[in-house]
Amino acid sequence: MTENGDATPLVRVENVNKNFGALHVLRDINLTVSRGEVVVVIGPSGGGKSTLCRAINRLETIDSGTITFDGQPLAAEGKALARLRSDVGMVFQSFNLFAHKTILENVTLGPIRVRGHSREKAEKRGMELLERVGIATQADKYPAQLSGGQQQRTAIARALAMDPKMILFDEPTSALDPEMVQEVLDVMIGLAREGMTMVVVTHEMGFARRAAHRVVFMSEGQIVEENTPDEFFTNARTDRAKDFLSKILTH
Amino acid sequence: MESLLDFGPLAEEFTTILAGFWATVRLSAMSALLALLLGTILVAMRVSPTPVLRSVGTAYVNVLRNTPLTLVLLLSALGLSDTLQLTFSRDPGVNYYWWATLGLSAYTAAFVCEALRSGVNTVPPGQAEAARAIGLTFTQTLRLVVLPQAFRSVIAPLGSILIALIKNTTIVIVAGYIEASSVMKQMFDDYGGTLPIFLGFALGYMVLTLPTGFFFGWLAKRMAVVR
């Protein structure tokens, strides 16, 4: 542990490889994420973006290489791994709100059971967060009663309730109806402005341009290109990135 | 012909019959509780990441589910209690009650475990991932997120298991505990095997099992998890 915590990268991914059977989904991945940085991971489907994102809090195991978070290598399992995950928020493509709990209970479960906060304290903070993402009036409803956009904003509030050091977003708007994408992106842009460290797997160019510090382009399990959003979208260096961009930008 | 339709014995032995059914209820309720508890522990073992726990859970379910209940109860009452002298109490009524309860719950737990395991399979994997992602441990994830949803999705099958359990109590006659079916057998011996006695006891069991079925059907609807 260094005293000068802010200078060390929050996440360091070194020479990481992973195979799903014969499929080599991560090939020699090297990536660092600094504190306060917003990194957008972009690229064709099956390119390993989600796997990389999920490997950072070890929802996916890796075959070789190392991943360190906040100066510590990821624990393999047990309490130490649970503690690490409590500091890394995660927002999923399919929301994954706890279906048998109300919106407020979804947001307070972690603080009460993991952080050991009192119910009163957790609920007060939970309501503040729900207020912030604009769904405080829905606090007593169940996830299935909410729209996709509202569910995903709840999921963001659930991640924030843990006071995480960073949040991973795994295609957070891909399962949403088009009219609900912006409300979720607005919350994410707000977080980025406040200095939250974020790794975002997304196809939303608008978000990348407005909020990202860096774009990482992944294809076939490799990081092909890294650049600032402006440079990447207007002036991609590699053919694979140009090819990908030509496909999504003409849509 | 008159004696065949004589409901007199049912009236005469009414208090004995009631006592018999009360014993059935006590046996069923305690066995149901223990079976639910043991079944939950077993399903936790069967879905745990530890191979040893998984194998033990699987072995238990396969052995108990595939052994006739009569043998399980004979092993408890004759083998463990009478031969090995493992007794709960000097009072044979109390002792055989507990051995019958243990036998029944050990047997029923295997079915509860399998019902719950199919319930666990109805819970989308994303639920457990989200639970782990906020820092819950494996046991917390199971206890707070996965099992509550699994339970709700198998309330109706658990009701069927409870009905089977209530009817299975008729077999504890081999374990020496006196409940409703032992009273019936005694009455057949004393009064002869008449239709009224049979009908009376059949009705008695239905009074226990029909509401159970209705209640669990209602509960299943009420508690269903909407996705």
Could you characterize the architecture of this molecule?
- The complex is a heterodimer of chains A (251) and B (227).
- Chain A is an alpha/beta fold.
- Helices cover 38% and strands 24% of the residues of chain A.
- Chain A has helices spanning 49-56, 78-86, 103-113, 119-132, 148-160, 178-193, 205-211, 229-234, 239-249; strands at residues 11-20, 23-33, 38-42, 64-69, 72-73, 88-91, 166-170, 197-201, 214-219, 222-227.
- Chain A has a 6-stranded mixed beta sheet, sandwiched between helices.
- In chain A, helix 6 (178-193) links the parallel strand 7 and strand 8 (197-201).
- Residues 1-5 of chain A have low confidence and may be disordered.
- Chain B has a domain at 24-179: MetI-like (MetI-like fold, Orthogonal Bundle), CATH 1.10.3720.10.
- Chain B starts with 7 loop residues before the first helix and ends with a helix.
- The mean pLDDT of chain B is 91.
- In chain B, helix 2 (14-47) runs antiparallel to helix 9 (180-191), helix 5 packs across helix 7 (138-153) and helix 5 runs antiparallel to helix 8.
- Chain B is mainly α and 227 residues long.
- Chain B contains 10 helices and no strands.
- The A-B interface holds A 57, 59, 77-79, 82-90, 92, 94, 96-100, 109-110, 113-114, 142, 144-145, 155, 158-159, 162 and B 49, 124, 126-127, 129-137, 140, 144-145, 148-149, 152, 225-227.
What descriptors fit this protein?
heterodimer; A: 251 residues; alpha/beta; 4-stranded antiparallel sheet; B: 227 residues; MetI-like fold
Secondary structure elements and their pairing?
The complex is a heterodimer of chains A (251) and B (227).
Chain A: E1 11-20, E2 23-33, E3 38-42, H1 49-56, E4 64-69, E5 72-73, H2 78-86, E6 88-91, H3 103-113, H4 119-132, H5 148-160, E7 166-170, H6 178-193, E8 197-201, H7 205-211, E9 214-219, E10 222-227, H8 229-234, H9 239-249
Parallel strand pairs in A: 3-8, 3-9, 6-7, 7-8
Antiparallel strand pairs in A: 1-2, 1-4, 4-5, 9-10
Chain B: H1 8-12, H2 14-47, H3 51-65, H4 69-83, H5 92-122, H6 125-133, H7 138-153, H8 155-168, H9 180-191, H10 195-223
Helix pairs in contact in B: 2-3, 2-5, 2-9, 3-5, 4-5, 5-7, 5-8, 6-7, 8-10
